[in-house]
Amino acid sequence: MNLKYFPLFIFFLIPLSVFSQSKSLNFDLKYEVTSNDFLLVADTADHKMGKAEGIGSVIFNDGTQGTVKVYFIYDYVKGNGDFIEYYDITLSDGSLLTIQAKGQSIGASSDGTAPLFTGTVTITGGNGKYEGVYGTGSVSGNRNESLISGAKVKLSFNITTR
Q: If you average pLDDT over residues 92-121, what whole number do you get?
């Protein structure tokens, strides 16, 4: 390498390394199911395909708080199965963060109560404080009752952002 270009190389390399550092985004989310519409599938007992919505609150590890709107579709047999969920998180400064989760509900009793949730998450968009922030991670949590309007869900997120 020609040494006269070395300082220029370093000048451009250092900013790139600063911007590419990853950070952790950790928070807890609680919401209440506000609507649940489903179809019964006749192949087995209590097989439901449906869509549901909820509203709630979120608190980040740094103390930042916000509200959340939740939209999800599911394919459950007796409360166990797959789901895809979206979370629109809004902070008091107007910043918005949208996250998609794909996962499973497991361990529900025969009446669909007390399932545990695990899944992978992807930040799909944002604005304000979250403009240009993307990342992936995991979600886990539970619901202490069957999937009905008024059911309460608690989730924890761990996301590595870039």
A: 90
